[in-house]
UniProtKB/TrEMBL annotation:
Belongs to the aldo/keto reductase family. Substrate binds at H107. This is NADP-dependent oxidoreductase domain-containing protein. It holds the Pfam family Aldo_ket_red. Keywords: NADP, Oxidoreductase. The active site is at Y47. Residues 10-283 form the NADP-dependent oxidoreductase domain. It comes from Aquilegia coerulea.
Length: 301
């Protein structure tokens, strides 16, 4: 199943996120994902595994498993490369062994001090404060013709007015906004706002990210309301959550290094939630964000 972005390009509704994927597993996971049917991979310079992803993709193309044009690759520009978009983009392409990307996202709406292409640290000044030094030059890169599409990403705490501001100055309308959203952090207003402006929303951290399956963490995978729905449909909570996001017209990119979970996360199109189920899920929106980089950056994003 695919969605068509505001630039006419189609993107699979179910992708595979590769953040925190164990390097030695990447090739096997990606090749198996392609065999299962995944055609959309969510990558980023910050994940520091572009080379491993590139090796897997090269093997998939060389062995005829899939053609480049049938795969959708997302890459993200890290915070301190905003003034070095072309170099950063070329660096990612080289590591991925690709000659074009399908989607280039600004990873976060903040810009930190540049310390070299391909490096992804967030450097603080001597006073311990994170430095911030420029504005986005992604549009210039797009004009160079190297990117097929240009898309901006905002995180959830980026306010709706700020998106409005970006829409006012962007010559190329943003096509995708990738945000954390799951039943405990539903973000309905930002999703509705994006939809109103023709911006597709992708859900990251849809399984709770680092808190998924961790004893003692608050995880919606154990939520009684969601478990009840899982029993009703004879599905797992993870599948209920993915189906719920797709029902909200979202794209999902759950990460898993387990082949059986790749299959599970891809098998979410053979049932549909009712409006009553959607209302029930609405009741568990605890506004609980799992991925909060501000904690380590001391910057509210
Ligand atoms: N734009 C951004 O700022 C941003 C931020 C965060 C993430 N992302 C993107 O979004 C992707 C997904 O987010 P994420 O990786 O943080 O977290 P996630 O997809 O919410 O959760 C991944 C965790 O859930 C487990 N899991 C996956 N499927 C499962 C299932 N069916 N049942 C039970 N557990 C399951 C995985 O374990 P196993 O691997 O052991 O299966 C892993 O521990 C990332 O890989 C990245 O591409 C983007």
């Amino acid at each position: 199943m695919t969605t068509t972005l505001n630039n006419g390009i189609t993107m699979s509704l179910t992708g595979l996120g590769v953040w925190r994927m164990e390097e030695k597993l990447i090739k096997n996971v990606i090749l198996n994902a392609i065999k299962i049917g995944y055609r959309h991979f969510d990558c980023a310079a910050k994940y520091q595994n572009e080379a491993e992803v590139g090796e897997a993709l090269a093997e998939a193309f060389d062995t005829g498993l899939v053609k480049r044009e049938d795969i959708f690759i997302t890459i993200k520009l890290w915070n301190f490369d905003h003034r070095h978009v072309l170099e950063a983009c070329k660096d990612s392409l080289k590591k991925l062994q690709l000659d074009y990307l399908d989607l280039y996202l600004v990873h976060y709406p903040i810009v930190t001090k540049h310390t070299g292409i391909g490096k992804t640290a967030s450097v603080r000044d001597e006073d311990g404060v994170l430095d911030i030094d420029s504005t986005i030059s992604l549009e210039t890169t797009w004009q160079s013709g190297m990117l097929w599409k240009i898309c901006f990403q905002w995180d959830c705490n980026y306010s709706v007015p700020l998106i409005g501001e970006c829409l006012a100055y962007a010559k190329v309308k943003p096509a995708v906004n990738q945000i954390e959203t799951h039943p405990y952090f539903q973000c309905d207003s930002i999703i509705k706002f994006c939809r109103k402006h023709g911006i597709c929303v992708t859900a990251h951290t849809s399984q709770g990210g680092a808190t998924a399956n961790v004893d003692g963490s608050v995880s919606f995978l154990e939520d009684p309301v969601l478990k009840k729905l899982a029993d009703k449909y004879k599905k797992t909570v993870a599948q209920i959550v993915l189906c719920w996001n797709i029902h909200r017209n979202m794209v999902v990119i759950p990460k898993s290094s387990k082949i059986e979970r790749l299959q599970e996360n891809f098998s979410v199109f053979d049932f549909e939630l009712t409006e009553k189920d959607m209302v029930d899920i609405m009741s568990v929106d605890w506004k609980l964000r799992c991925n909060q980089p501000a904690k380590s950056w001391d910057i509210f994003v």
